[in-house]
Amino acid sequence: MKINNKTLIIVILIILISGYGIAKSTGLWTTTGRKFISTNTEVVHDEEDNDENEMKVNAKTTFEELFENGITKENVKEIFGIENIEYTGNIKEFCNNNDLEFSEVKEILTNKLIDLVK
């Protein structure tokens, strides 16, 4: 018995798709996604504008540090898209707890801080 290539490809695809479906329905295949913050603003900065004294957002940055550097609670609500925020802990923990992408939040907050300095 000879199987042509098209039939073989179809059989393999059916096996893969059904295997995925069975694994997902039995809980053996799980995926977790991250929410991405959408922003319609584009901020462009010249390298010469960087000030060594400006605050840099990193994994240990707290909400309190953001507030001390000019970001308001309204700014935070707008950036995160979340109305009721507990302003405790650091930004990275908050992102992890709310399925937000820290690198994207970091970039947005850093740009906001740079804009406040200008």
Summarize the structure.
With about 120 residues, the chain is mainly α. The protein is built from five helices and no strands.
- The end-to-end span amounts to 76 Å
Helix content: 40-55%
What is the succession of H and E elements? HHHHH
Structural class: mainly alpha
Instruction: Report the C-alpha radius of gyration, rounded.
Output: 23 Å
Q: Assembly state here?
A: single chain
Hey, roughly how much beta strand do the residues contain?
under 5%
Number of strands: 0
Largest sheet: none
What is the total domain count? 2
State the helix count: 5
**How does the overall form come out from the CA principal axes?**
elongated
Task: Report what the structure shows.
Helix content is 49%, strand content 0%. The chain has 118 residues and is an all-alpha fold. It folds into two domains: 1-31; 47-117, no CATH class. 8% of the residues are buried. Mean pLDDT is 78; it is low at 38-52.
List keywords for this structure.
single chain, 118 residues, mainly alpha, 2 domains, 5 helices, 49% helix
Topology:
Blueprint (H helix, E strand, L loop, with lengths): L4 H21 L37 H6 L4 H8 L10 H7 L4 H16 L1
